[in-house]
What does this fold into?
Amino acid sequence: MIGGSNLGLTCQHLCKTYPTRNGLITALDDITFSVKEHEFVSIVGPSGCGKTTLLKLIAGLSKPTSGQIIFNSGLSRHQQRTALVFQEHGLFPWMTVLDNVAFGLEMYGMPKRDRRDLAMTFIEKVGLVSFANNYPHELSVGMCQRVGILRAFAADPQILLMDEPFGSLDAQTKQVLRQELLRIWRENKKLILFVTHDIDEAVLLGDRVLVMSGHPGHIREEIQIPIHRPHDPISEQQLELTEIKWHIWKILEEEVLKSLQMPS
Ligand SMILES: Nc1ncnc2c1ncn2[C@@H]1O[C@H](COP(=O)(O)OP(=O)(O)OP(=O)(O)O)[C@@H](O)[C@H]1O
Ligand SMILES: [Mg+2]
It folds into this structure.
């Protein structure tokens, strides 16, 4: 694995407005939070509340209208290795599975043979060896999603940004990749921001859950998960986790009803 300093990040008063034909849309309003080095933070919120926008700002794919993002390592954005796993897989259609996974390693000057060897070890983990030389259009949606995740893992970024990465996967693959993600996070001490619509997944993976609201997007609550992983399925801690999940569920239900303009 490629090494490197790996410190936290702070978002200060981030705002993002998009100009559209119908005027300005404020996607994010006054977002302030910090993530410590090695922290795993889940983000949940109703559709359209600005989760993808937030990850794109942190990844440097889009500029905030105001506010700032500070990498506490002291590195600039160009030096800071950030990888974003997109909501849609975001693979290069002209590259094979192997080349897509190896792509992230190219930037770090790794020789081509080593790049391909390392990429192959990741591909083996999710059972896609026989598709290594296929192109994305020859794969199912779930297979493409797996390749997108592997590309980010193989690139070994300091900050891993994941936008509903397991959305279109079957339950078993989801389970395997969640364990793999936790293993990579533990072994490589990464900072991970993980967007999901699945409350169970948010609580299972995160040290902390940021609950966002929409219109415009802001952080409604930050919830610390008081229990260390792996969660024991038959312990009393489960009761505490269930209460946390219920609390998040109630916030999201209220948000969705508000967005549909229905009484709660
Ligand atoms: N490029 C863009 N141009 C104009 N408006 C945009 C653009 N991207 C996002 N928006 C708007 O910003 C708001 C937030 O969008 P965003 O995609 O960040 O939401 P999200 O929380 O990721 O939603 P979902 O859960 O459905 O993925 C929405 O109102 C959306 O219409
Ligand atoms: Mg999104």
